[in-house]
Design goal:
It is a single chain. It is built from 6 helices and 9 strands, in the order ααββαβαβαββββαβ. The protein is of the alpha/beta class. The protein has a 4-stranded parallel beta sheet, with helices on one face. Helix 1 (2-15) packs antiparallel against helix 2 (23-40). The radius of gyration is 21 Å and the shape is globular. It starts with a helix and ends with a strand. The relative contact order is 0.11.
């Protein structure tokens, strides 16, 4: 049944990370995602106008990521999730609980939140093991592309500091952090985000987990890129 096929996709999504990571499991996931596209989108796609798709799902369908439906089915012998034809490549996809809330909460463009981005330069920053961080060659470009569509500010290189981050966390902006992090599995709270050193505090460029937990961040979304 239609419902049964969609439930199978939901269950596969839940178990995907725990099942054996092989090409068979990869292709099974792709097949189910392609099936979902053929069941829910393809039959009515000819009636779509424009490239903005708003999904108002019901019951079990609300668990499905429409963004990840596949519009074509690749025959792959190796795994590459980044190369798949996801539906989100064709549409700007958003979700709503009902048509009423969609109308009541409709955004006016002038009220869209600003974006504040941080793109550190890692040419002179070392890890805790005294190894050089890999330079992120495109983190500046990544945020600039976002700012082509949203108003906002980019803090790059020596401006991508913890002090500038702290001064912006209560402005109600989307915070986009295109940066490295360090994971500490031994000391609770010691994992950190890696900013640029501050001119006044050259040794301070790690923002630790326990510090973030004590902050009052007013933001509709924080992106860790």
């Amino acid at each position: 049944t239609l419902f049964g096929k969609l439930i199978e996709l939901k269950e596969q999504l839940i178990s995907q990370s725990t099942e054996e990571d092989n090409i068979g499991n990869y292709n099974k996931m792709n097949q189910l995602s392609f099936n979902a596209y053929n069941l829910l989108i393809q039959p009515i796609e000819k009636y779509f106008e424009g490239k903005q798709l708003i999904v108002i799902p019901d019951n079990e369908i609300s668990y499905l990521p429409f963004d990840a439906f596949l519009t074509s089915l690749p025959k792959k012998k190796s795994r590459n999730y980044a190369d798949l034809a996801y539906l989100i490549r064709d549409y700007s996809i958003s979700y709503s609980y009902s048509t009423n809330t969609l109308v009541d909460n409709k955004y006016i463009s002038k009220n869209w939140p600003r974006v504040i981005g941080f793109a550190p330069d890692y040419s002179n920053i070392s890890t805790t093991n005294n190894e050089k961080f890999k330079i992120l060659k495109s983190n500046n470009k990544e945020i600039k592309r976002i700012l082509d569509n949203f108003a906002g500010t980019l803090y790059s290189a020596d401006q991508a500091t913890i002090s500038n981050f702290k001064s912006n966390i209560n402005k109600g902006a989307i915070l986009h952090l295109a940066m490295h992090s360090e994971l500490d599995t031994l000391k609770s709270g010691s994992s950190s985000l890696i900013f640029n050193p501050d001119i006044k505090h050259s040794g301070k460029y790690r923002l630790y987990n326990y510090e973030i937990g004590q902050m009052n961040i007013n933001s509709p979304m924080v992106v860790l890129s």
